Input
Amino acid sequence: MNKQRVKHIRRTFGPLLALSALVFSTLSIADINLPSIGEPVDLVISPAEEKKLGQAFMAQARKELDIVDDVETNYFIASLGNRLLNASNNGSETFHFFTINDSRINAFAVPGGYVGINTGTILSAQNESQLAGVVAHEIAHVTQRHIAHRIKEANKQNLPLTAAILIAVLGGLQDSTAMQAALSAGIAASAQNSINFTRKNEYEADRIGINLLAQAGYSPRGMAEFFSILQTQNNRFGRESIEFLRTHPLEQNRIAEAQNRAARLSSGNHVINTVDFQLIQARLQWLLSSERERAFHLQNINETDRATLSDHYRAALTAVHSGRRKEAQLFIQALKTTYPENLLIRLLEADGVARLENLQQGEVLFEALLKTYPEFSPAIWRYAEVLIDEKNPAKAYQYLASYTRSFDQVPAPFFQLQAKSAGLANNRTASLESLADYHIKLAQIEDAISQLKYALKTTQQGSADYERITAKLAILKNGQLPSKP
Output
């Protein structure tokens, strides 16, 4: 996670012309089929078109944003998001949750169910319910189709302003100079109307999000509590320091309404915090620290008896990754003594044992974990990494292929690692097909077709591989995506 790259991203991502070009190259005015005033919002932009817009946005975001690729963090954020979704009436809708390496407090929703959360937001939350409040709010923006409604509102005023409204909607990824450029281009009045419309959306997203928190078993006070954190920081450092407030206007009435709604829903039996949340916060702190800071922390924890759960977890991570076997054993044992069944702690133990002590014993721990929790994707990933490092890529491919075949919501990077393991095992067909599946997960049809054509050349005509790859190619050439890679 290069700090210079993050600075570059903040300066360059989201300028007016770049984003409007992205929007209209992917979703043309003709595609949108703009209606006359009063027609349903589906005639402005359909759910299918919203999905297409989201895919195009994410294609650009993957190039420009410093997206966190840590499997444990991504698993936690996706689990939190899916818990909220499963408690709603939109549990069948596919969402994609991802984390951005950015110290600023911000989160945003993109059409098609893409929800991004900055690391600064995760680290600023004081408990899991507060973080869940932020995610629930962004889910509500998507499920209520606020972007489509804002485009419709813009079209009542002036057709060319659609791009400007989209820029305002996705303003969490732009710097303030881009918005100033938009305003100076003659759309100041429209931008003001857009902001007013946003306030209506914010209240609705608050209401739905707070209900989601309660339905999912979280404290409905979490959202209002996070608002209070924002308000405190706003008063201390000034509004410009908090990115979230630029795109989510926060007023005292809004905070009071959120508090009142939460009070009516509170029963006293809600989850406020979890061990996993504390561990993921500690993990992000560790990931974002330098080798020198990690070494200092490891030395310091050995000299104090006031170490917290987070301290022990960060120290254990440092010990495992720096090859300090005895210290790794010490800190992992301390964690296991208090939380013997926690999956993140058990995973760190398996990884540490496999890398620092005995590969076979580590494999036993990995396989025991996966036998009980086959959908715990971080264990699949870490086990595959260990097997690849230990020169057993064929077994790594076996585990990865079993996982990607068995489950639907598989993150795209797993297909990349699967392709790597197959290639190292000299299974060229599987490597090429896995790489095609990676592109399919990202809706990159042309790239997927290219890889499958190469894969077809490595197979025997009439074989099961040949028939499967041919069928995938036919679907992709129709401009569609297979229901499952």
